[in-house]
Structures are given as structure tokens and as C-alpha cells.
Specification:
This protein is mostly helical and 59 residues long. It is 66% helix and 0% strand. The chain has one domain.
């Protein structure tokens, strides 16, 4: 769920943090929110790679 007053990059960082903590579902949610809000981001390929890795580890 996106909040209007949150910078888009916060979702990318939240996804990375959740992934490091082992919270795969929360990480995927955050990364997917980032992807939805920033479809033209220069680092989108990194986020999509992280999502792919998490898809292989459905936690």
C-alpha cells in the first residue's frame, strides 16, 4: 500500500531491508510497490532481479 507522502525510493529500501531480515513476502510487496510507482527508474533492473530471487524463495 503506497502512501502519498512517502518518497518512492523508500519502498526500494524497505524491500531491501525486509529481504535482509528474511521477510520475503514483505520484501516482494515493497519492491512491487516501487516498481509500480517508478516504472521508468534507472535501477528498476536491480529491483526486478531482487523480486526474481525472492520468487524463488517464497517466504
Amino acid at each position: 500500500m503506497a502512501h502519498a507522502d512517502v518518497p518512492v525510493a523508500a519502498y526500494r529500501e524497505l524491500g531491501a531491508l525486509e529481504a535482509r531480515l528474511g521477510n520475503g513476502a514483505a520484501a516482494r510487496t515493497a519492491f512491487n510497490t516501487y516498481r509500480e510507482l517508478a516504472p521508468q527508474a534507472d535501477d528498476l533492473w536491480i529491483v526486478e532481479d531482487q523480486i526474481s530471487r525472492l520468487e524463488g524463495d517464497k517466504t
